[in-house]
Amino acid sequence: MGTTYHITVVTGYFSSTKDLKDQIDQRLEEIIKSMSAFRKDSEISRFNANQNTGEKFKISDDFFNVMTVAKTVYELTGGAWDGTVKPLENLWGFGSSENKKSIPAQSEIAALLPDIGFNNIEISSNHYLIKKKASISLDLASIAKGYGVDQLAALIRTSGIKNFLVEIGGEVFAAGFRKDGKKWRIGINRPKAGSPFNQVYKVVELHDKGFATSGDYRNFFEVDGKRFSHILNPKSGYPVNNGVVSVSVIADTCTFADGFATAVIVLGHEKGLERVNSLDHTECLIVVRTHDGKFIDHYSKGFKTYMAASN
Predict the structure, then answer these.
(1) What is the pLDDT of residues 218-247, one digit of tens each?
(2) What span, in angstroms and rounded, lies between the C-alpha atoms of 43 and 48?
(3) Distance (Å, rounded) from C-alpha 53 to C-alpha 131?
(4) What integer is the mean pLDDT of 282-302?
(5) Judging by DSSP bridges, how do beta strands 244-251 and 200-206 pair with one another?
(6) Which fold has domain 179-306?
(7) DSSP-assigned beta bridge partners for residue 283
């Protein structure tokens, strides 16, 4: 997944977690083998290489589960989240670290837009994907990490451990309580370019919840003082430029929180808040940067109930 993971479990003094660690590594390997676009032999890479429209492409449970949540997020956000923007990411230079980041010609963007659209993939309940267009390709990086978090949480629960924290690349699931009996405290990174990963902007307290943050302040390039973020609007083909620098979402699963955080950045703070406030068991914090560099926080109806008293 191109990132790190950290897991904290609360167990008795004599409990051994070595077997659990081996199981976790194995489970992560299965998910990576399924949905890592970095691996040519992964399911997702084979699906992208398949140019046959109408052909049934058999997928694993993991791939199917992520695609099902992805479809929900796509539909709930009116296409603001779209897992088929990979060609646009490559065009802008965000596809890999080797690509040169630059502003493409408007004609190049326009030429790719017909190849974008999650609705061009049919998801069969029998665990098949069917391309309606041969050129469609998938990148599930903005939702698969969250799924990895949820799957590790499920695995830890099967071992009988009820209190734990799982984090993969900043996406989190907090189960039960800490060793001191209090809720888990999660820091939201200060959404400023170059800020250290341990610089905390806000703190939330979580119990049996998934949590994800998406931002534009780590992966971007600048031309003539103008910033171009890696988060692209699937409809226009251009990087999002609406002032939103960070979105943190709390939900029942990290998979949903992960995908939705990206979608809210695309929607902007007004539409994003409206969408989140219409959902049950989902809250968000949207941080907008003003022209003079100040931050304005926009909270969904219930987000502040999760905030630590020190905020």
Answers:
(1) 677 777 777 778 899 999 999 999 999 999
(2) 9
(3) 5
(4) 95
(5) unpaired
(6) T-fold (3.10.520)
(7) 250
How many Å apart are CA 151 and CA 140, to the nearest integer?
A: 16
Q: How many other C-beta atoms can be found within 10 angstroms of the C-beta atom of residue 296?
A: 11
Q: Which residues pair with 201 in a beta bridge?
A: none
The pair of structure tokens assigned to 147 is 């799924």
Question: In whole angstroms, what is the distance from residue 106 CA to residue 114 CA?
Answer: 14
- The C-alpha angle with vertex 236 and arms to 230 and 242, in degrees rounded to 5, equals 60
256-286 pLDDT, tens digit per residue, is 999 999 999 999 999 999 999 999 999 999 9
Rounded percentage of the chain residues whose pLDDT exceeds 90: 77
Which helix (H) or strand (E) segment holds residue 156: the answer is: helix 141-158
Residue 86: CB partners within 8 Å, gap ≥ 6?
37, 48, 95, 137, 138, 139
Is 149 buried (19+), middle (13-18) or exposed (0-12) by CB count in 10 A? buried
Per-residue pLDDT tens digits for 2-35: 788 999 999 876 566 778 999 999 999 999 999 9
Nearest-5° angle of CA 266, CA 271, CA 274?
Answer: 135
Residue 94 CA to residue 109 CA, distance in Å, equals 14
Buried-exposed string 67-84: b where 16+ CB fall within 10 A, e elsewhere: bebbeebbebbebbbbbb
Please spell the DSSP secondary structure of 203-265, one letter per residue.
Answer: EEEESSEEEEEEESSSSEEEETTEEEES-B-TTT-SB--SSEEEEEEEESSHHHHHHHHHHHH
Enumerate the β-bridge partners of residue 124.
128
Could you give the CA distance from residue 57 to residue 214 in angstroms, rounded to a whole number? 31
Q: Mapping DSSP to helix (H, G, I), strand (E, B) and coil, where does residue 130 land?
A: strand
Copy the structure tokens of residue 181: 């009996």
* Both structure tokens of 212: 């994800």
Q: 27: which 2 tokens? A: 């489970």
Radius of gyration of the chain, Cα coordinates, nearest whole angstrom:
19
